[in-house]
Task: structure prediction
Amino acid sequence: MTDGNAEAMEPTLFSAVLTPHRSLGAAGFLALMALLSALSFAAGLVFYLIGAWPVVGFLGLDVLLVYLAFRANYRAATAYEAVTMTPSELRVRKVSHRGAIAEWKLNPVWVRLDRQTHEEFGIQRLFLVSHGRRLPVAGFLGPREKEAFALAFSAALTQARRGPTRTVAE
Result:
């Protein structure tokens, strides 16, 4: 068996794809924009009827700016981090919203998870530390999600440090 086949046969100890949280889905966005447009139209009509017609353009500009801000926010939400660990390799792949890819391959035996915590708010930042280098990870997650990620990731690191377990075929 070649080394490539042996790596392909390794069990996955940990795998996570982390994405930015967005609380407003497509239907909510459409509803919000419809409501904002209706309110802006009604206010614009009032101002037009009392003779302040230049205000109408500014109300339309407000709606356009809110729309553009949400579009930029949704575009930024396409970024993600993929973290995968086998007994012999830890792979972190970060993809920006522009499609730029950065990938790191580490030996899980030499990696430790460093946590920056705040007494009141919990885990603020997580770093993978290996050979004196720190790689930030799970930046998209909130404190509770970071805690869950850290627990699962630490368990997988412990399992990777124990080494591969072999089962005897009967």
